[in-house]
Amino acid sequence: MVLGAGGHARSVVDVLERAGHTVVAVSGAETGGEPWHVDVLGDDRAAFELIAARNLCAVVAIGAGHARSALVHELLERGLQAPPVVASTATVSPRSTLGAGTVVLEHAHVGPASRVGEAVIVNTGAIVEHDCRVGAGAHVAPGAVLLGGASVGGGALVGSGARVLPRVSVGAGATIGAGAVVTGHVADGQTVIGVPAVTRGVSRASRTGGIS
């Protein structure tokens, strides 16, 4: 069962089906595009009932970090299964750890001694190098790179193609703009852009408690 019916859910369903899993249904409001080829449940309550009744594994596939974390937490609180999902083309070191509800999409990499928290998205082609730390609900967007020893706080967004240099920390709820190169520490809730990255203001993730 996949909780979510938007674009990110399409990517996650594709990963699951390519790995040979059967997706029973998706849940939530559809966001347009091609019709779904699986059943669509109108809300997450119906999905929770089906997951419990049929002892299904659940994958939370929504973009908003705060909401994603909350749903994973609720699944675990109810004693339901929300295992991490790793695409067949991704590489994850056996000496790293992935939290419940985390997804590692196509051609992404998680290196040795890295610790990735719950409900994290390591998106297509993203790289989390050795000894990194990624907090719950964070999103490492397509093509982004966390170099060795970098850390990203909970609910933060590292934008597409961005680079976080070795041992640099990005605070909780921060936003790193697409293509930015982060050479120094970023405070909680800050938005930084550019090469090298400079502060733009307070991120939307910080104001709303999530990432959309």
Compile the SSE list and pairings.
Elements: E1 2-3, H1 7-18, E2 25-27, E3 39-41, H2 44-54, E4 59-60, H3 65-77, E5 85-86, E6 91-92, E7 97-98, E8 103-104, E9 109-110, E10 115-116, E11 121-122, E12 127-128, E13 133-134, E14 139-140, E15 145-146, E16 151-152, E17 157-158, E18 163-164, E19 169-170, E20 175-176, E21 181-182, E22 190-193, E23 198-202, H4 204-208
Parallel strand pairs: 1-2, 1-4, 2-3, 5-8, 6-9, 7-10, 8-11, 9-12, 10-13, 11-14, 12-15, 13-16, 14-17, 15-18, 16-19, 17-20, 18-21, 20-22
Antiparallel strand pairs: 22-23
Overview of the structural elements:
The chain has 212 residues and is α/β, with parallel strands linked by helices. The protein folds into 2 domains: 2-62, no CATH class; 103-208, Hexapeptide repeat proteins (UDP N-Acetylglucosamine Acyltransferase, domain 1, 3 Solenoid). It is 19% helix and 25% strand. The protein is built from 4 helices and 23 strands. The protein has helices at residues 7-18, 44-54, 65-77, 204-208; strands spanning 2-3, 25-27, 39-41, 59-60, 85-86, 91-92, 97-98, 103-104, 109-110, 115-116, 121-122, 127-128, 133-134, 139-140, 145-146, 151-152, 157-158, 163-164, 169-170, 175-176, 181-182, 190-193, 198-202. The strands form 4 sheets. Strands 5-8-11-14-17-20-22-23 form an 8-stranded mixed β-sheet. A 6-stranded parallel β-sheet has the order 6-9-12-15-18-21, with no helix packed on it. Helix 1 links the parallel strand 1 and strand 2. The longest helix has 13 residues, at 65-77. The radius of gyration is 16 Å and the shape is globular.
